[in-house]
Design goal:
By secondary structure, the protein is an alpha+beta fold. The protein has three domains: 2-161, Beta Barrel (Hypothetical Protein Pfu-838710-001); 201-347, Alpha solenoid (CHAD domain), CATH 1.40.20.10; 352-494, Alpha solenoid (CHAD domain). Helices cover 57% and strands 16% of the residues. The protein has 17 helices and nine strands. Strand 4 and strand 5 (66-74) form a beta hairpin. The longest helix is centred in the middle third of the chain and has 36 residues, at 254-289.
């Protein structure tokens, strides 16, 4: 006998549903499900399912909200025989059945290759009941989208493709949203995505945004009075581009990714000299404050030397920003963004970006905890520097995809990361600048007693400050190491 199946389906965030239900204080019954299809098309499906210890054959006709369904229990032998005839994929999942608010909610959490895929189904007695239904607030918190009418998210479609579908936004619409920004001088990436946006569209949107920042700062350097901040933001945007290629590595073609990582590294090297000079010139007043008054004017010779070098370096910078290597790479990356094809991308880029983002964030976060806990006051400066890079990459990633996260938890996590990054950054600056000052002291232009005395005293003070930064790091990292619950709340929204 046939029955009508009236059902609405909701796509949920890719997090532990067991943890979610526990947090909300909801009881549930769990059952393991295995199923496959001998027929699965737009007009109907022949499904075989192992539901706990039962074996069920179901014939379904229609699609969307209302479908005709005929179900019979079969033997294990018939099930296994049908399974041998199956040429598609076998779906495995855990169903958690929850009674809440006068409804039965069935939450399916799928196993590989759909790990992270959570689907909520609610059945109704009538079409009117289904249309009048409003999802309870506790589920709205983790809702991605309703997919009742989206055939890509039916189990039959999943068994045919055996890959998780995305919910794509047109690239032109994403770029139009980006272009609404008042200016692009700051290397921020305030792009709003839905959690199931395709990886390809998400990374193209981010690359596009960062290229706009590079372009805006290049034009400001070329056509306005030079400001060190413009070069700084241009380089931050390039650094973020390289971080994106590294962090979202599985979404890119290896050859394409490596080629453009190297080209961006070349652009960074060519613009690095002027940035270093800018940093030292900006630091001179602070350096003087670190010295006794009788040694402060000993840095005047260093300032004069750097000012002269800056004039020469700026000319080289302006020439480079107008050169073919620079502009061709920017143009090539813009073409990548606008190309609807998958050139430069892997097959995985068609899937939902949230799955890749969560995996990358968890991996980086665990690495930071492991490295940070291993550091002590006697660790090598390079070990502190490598941790700083990891912290910076984690910060970049959560900023790239901030629209996917719980806002309060995101703000708190970002604040913690910025604090750690700031301490490690100051530690690294002290280490690098001390070494660089030692090299500068060998220059004939700086060979006078007062300058040498000032540089030596400055390096001693820097060494003491570096030790203080290590102590400050230990105290701060102890607090950061307790952020696991906050991290989970950020990426899972609960």
């Amino acid at each position: 006998m046939s029955n009508l199946e009236i059902e609405r389906k909701f796509l949920l965030y890719p997090c532990s549903m067991k943890r979610f239900l526990k947090k909300e204080g909801l009881d549930w019954k769990a059952v393991k499900i295995e199923q496959f299809y001998l027929l699965a098309g737009e007009n109907g499906a022949e499904r075989y399912r192992k539901y706990g210890n039962k074996y069920i054959k179901t014939i379904k006709r229609g699609s969307g909200l209302i479908r005709e369904e005929r179900e019979v229990e079969i033997s294990k032998t018939l099930y296994e025989e049908a399974k041998r005839q199956n040429s598609g994929g076998v779906i495995k999942k855990i169903r958690r059945v929850v009674k809440f608010d006068e409804h039965t909610f069935e939450i399916d959490s799928f196993k590989n290759p759909f790990k992270g895929f959570n689907l909520l189904e609610v059945e109704f007695k009538s079409e009117a009941d289904a249309k009048a239904f409003e999802l309870p607030d506790i589920f709205k918190e983790i809702l991605v989208a309703e997919v009742t009418e989206n055939r890509d998210f039916t189990n039959g479609a999943l068994s045919r493709s055996m890959k998780l579908p995305s919910i794509e936004t047109d690239l032109k619409d994403i770029f139009a949203q980006v272009d609404k920004r008042e200016d692009f001088l700051k290397a921020s990436t305030n792009v709003v995505f839905n959690a199931y946006e395709s990886g390809s569209h998400a990374v193209k949107a981010l690359v596009y945004t960062l290229l706009k920042t590079i372009e805006a700062n290049r034009d400001a350097i070329l056509h306005k009075e030079y400001e060190p901040e413009r070069l700084h933001q241009l380089r931050v945007a390039m650094r973020k581009l390289r971080a994106l290629l590294s962090q979202m590595k599985p979404l890119f073609s290896p050859t394409w990714r490596d080629e453009h990582k190297e080209k961006l590294a070349y652009l960074m090297r060519q613009t690095g000299s002027q940035r270093d000079i800018d940093v030292y010139l900006e630091a001179i007043p602070n350096y003087k404050q670190m010295l006794p008054k009788d040694l402060q004017d000993g840095l005047d010779a260093l300032e004069d030397y750097l000012t002269q070098k800056s004039k020469e370096s700026k000319d080289e910078l302006i020439n480079f920003l107008q050169s073919d290597p620079f502009n061709k790479e920017i143009e090539t990356l813009f073409e990548f963004c606008h190309n609807e094809e998958s050139i430069g991308l892997s097959k995985r880029s068609s899937g939902p970006v949230i799955i890749e983002v969560k995996h990358a964030l968890r991996k980086r976060y665990k690495r930071i905890l492991k490295k940070g806990n291993a550091l002590n006051k006697n660790s090598l400066a390079d070990e502190y520097h490598l941790l700083r890079i990891d912290v910076k990459k984690l910060r970049y990633m959560i900023e790239f995809f901030s629209s996917l996260f719980n806002k309060d938890a995101y703000d708190k996590m970002l604040k913690r990361l910025k604090t750690i990054q700031s301490i490690l950054g100051e530690h690294q600056d002290l280490e690098v600048q001390s070494q660089h000052l030692k090299e500068l002291s060998q220059l004939p232009e700086l060979h006078n007693d007062k300058t040498m005395a000032a540089l030596n005293e400055l390096r001693k003070t820097m060494a003491q400050m570096e030790e203080q930064k290590r102590l400050e790091f230990r105290d701060t990292f102890k607090l950061f190491a307790k952020t696991e619950d906050l991290f989970l709340e950020m990426i899972c929204k609960f």
